[in-house]
Amino acid sequence: MVSRWFKLKDKVTELRKAGTSIGVINKQYGIPKSTLSVWFRKIKLNKSQRDKIYKEASIKMANARIKAVLWHNKQKADRLTKARLEANSTLNRLNFEDKDILELALSFLYLGEGSKTNLTSMANSNPKILKFFINAIDRLYKIKTQDIKCTIHIRSDQNGKSLNEYWSDTLKIPIKNFGKPLVDKRTVKSKTYPYYKGVCVLRIGTIHIQRKLLFLSDGFCDKIAV
Q: Hey, CA dihedral for 145, 149, 153, 156, is it positive or negative?
């Protein structure tokens, strides 16, 4: 039985001999690749023709990769947008004047990031987390910034004086409350990224807050984990 594409055989054979890829011919004329492979199996291409086909395939592959990246980026952006909207929906239902909610949130932050030794202390390299801690303990326990002592942990190639000033300005804590920076001597031979400002440790002169926060987070876990 003669293929319905047979009338195009001579035309596409000339295209193939000229170095046109099977993919391009398939896309242009709709002839199945299996049929084209049978028609072209005795055609020997020279180096320049093979190079031409390889170049076309490479361009096609590159374009396909670009499209795939764009598609994946759009999918990720859509998922991020959905997550942000869902988070905002939850935030909109919260009463930010409710101190019980604030204290519960603070207790879980402390459970993960706070000191468990004999003092109330929080250490982090993220200013937002430390600002939350400072504002929360002010609203909940009337602890002011002038009552908070600070020490920064830095790498060997960082300037302690300028970083004390950075954290003092960022957290609005008096510079006199900062002690001498502690240098990690293990970092002597490594270079620090410009955006890294060290770890700032905040200390409050009472153990009571730490104890209450840890009891609160532990008790809440007990209520949920039953």
A: positive
- The CA-atom distances, in angstroms, between 58 and each of 20, 121, 158 are 14, 58, 47
- HSE-CB at 129 with a 13 A cutoff on CA atoms is 17
- CA dist., res. 26 & res. 48, Å (int): 21
Question: Coil, strand, or helix at residue 120?
Answer: strand
Mean pLDDT by 10 residues, the chain (226 residues): 75 82 84 86 80 80 90 94 97 96 97 94 97 97 96 95 97 97 91 93 95 97 91
Helix (H) or strand (E) holding 145: none
The rounded Cα 8 to chain-centroid distance in angstroms is: 54
Question: Backbone dihedral region of 19: left (phi > 0), alpha (psi from -120 to 50 degrees) or beta?
Answer: left
Give the C-alpha distances (Å, rounded to integers) separating 111 from 21, 102, 106: 63, 14, 8
Position 52 scores a pLDDT of 79
Count of C-beta atoms within a 10 Å radius of residue 58: 10
Helix/strand/coil for 121: strand
Domain borders along the chain are 99-224
Judge residue 60's burial from the number of C-beta atoms within 10 Å of its C-beta, 0-12 exposed, 13-18 middle, 19 or more buried: middle
Q: Which residue has the tokens 């084209």?
A: 36
